[in-house]
Amino acid sequence: MTTYENILYEPQKNGVLITLNRPEAMNSLSVELRADLNAALDEAEQDDSIRYVILTGAGRAFSAGANMRGSRDGSLPPVVWPYGLREGQSVAEFLDSWRDGDRNGIRDQMRRWEYPKPIIGAINGWALGAASWLALTTHITIASENAVFGQPEVRHISNTNFIWVLLAGYKNALRYALTGDHIDAEEALRIGIVNKVVPHDDLLDECFYIGERIALVSPETVKINLHVATLGLEMMGLDKAWSLNAELAALAHTSQREDFKRHLDDANEKGGLRSYIETRDAPFQPEPFGPRARR
């Protein structure tokens, strides 16, 4: 069994518990964590004794989403306005870098979608941005009462993901994709992006209960019935929607506007990532759901 730096890999019962394990960074999805997760899924797939995967996060977050700190820690050239490009970077280079990254993200998403063993999401806390897409592409998704979903990155010029439209429906998806507003566990259940909400302390027990019931069915049958659902949706056009998603995501990232973005970069320069996020989200407070709605 491989030892991973950014996740915990713990075979239990007839399954394996995979825990995103960067709690000091709210399990943000660094390049290294993504690589470890992909490798762990490969390992679980090849192990015939593992019948299902449970995916959760360490600490108070499932994951806060993409690793923003790496792009704002001084390791990259400064942003130059009015076009929002890195110093010395062409428009073509900027667009190409985002296109490559977004295509890779969709490939990882498709890999999990087509995974031949059930992936059960145990969403224990914050699941934002790219982490909401990771949560929603688990085959069965159980939320702790503490779970919070959302795509707040649209507030700093970024994209949504078609998986929200598929699961929540056109109207609900746009309600939250166009604002970046938070969604608590009960609202997530109402709009159909999770299967069930349970008390926080019961989350893993509930996921293992479901996994063990699945393990009573022959693995070949489980695999085929997974594909009836997932590949059926691909035949209806999901793969094409996701391919277009990657292209449009790159365009969203390159649609920089000084009047909507420069003040965020100024906040980051003065106060770091926390100041950046607080400045970004301040006009949207209070959030309609989740912990910030109660402040």
Question: What keywords describe this structure?
Answer:
about 300 residues; alpha/beta; six-stranded mixed beta sheet; four-stranded mixed beta sheet; 10 helices; 12 strands; about 45% helix; globular
Gross geometry: globular
Q: For the residues shown, what is the average pLDDT? A: 94
What is the CA-CA span between the terminal residues?
45 Å
What's the tally of helices?
A: 10
Overall SS class? alpha/beta
Query: Runs with pLDDT <50, length 5+?
Result: none
Largest sheet geometry: 6 strands, mixed
Task: Supply Rg.
Answer: 19 Å
Which range does the strand content fall in?
Answer: 15-25%
Elements, N to C (H/E): EEHEEEEHEEHEEHHEHEHHHH
* Helix content bin: 40-55%
Q: What does this molecule look like?
A:
- The chain has 295 residues and is of the alpha/beta class.
- The chain contains 10 helices and 12 strands.
- It has helices at 31-46, 91-113, 130-136, 162-168, 170-177, 185-191, 203-214, 219-235, 238-254, 258-281; strands at residues 7-12, 15-20, 52-57, 61-63, 79-80, 85-86, 119-123, 126-128, 140-144, 148-150, 183-184, 196-198.
- The chain has a 6-stranded mixed sheet with strand order 1-2-3-7-9-12, with helices on both faces.
- Strand 5 and strand 6 form a beta hairpin.
- Helix 2 packs antiparallel against helix 9 and helix 4 (162-168) crosses helix 5.
- The longest helix is centred in the last third of the chain and has 24 residues, at 258-281.
- The protein is globular, with a radius of gyration of 19 Å.
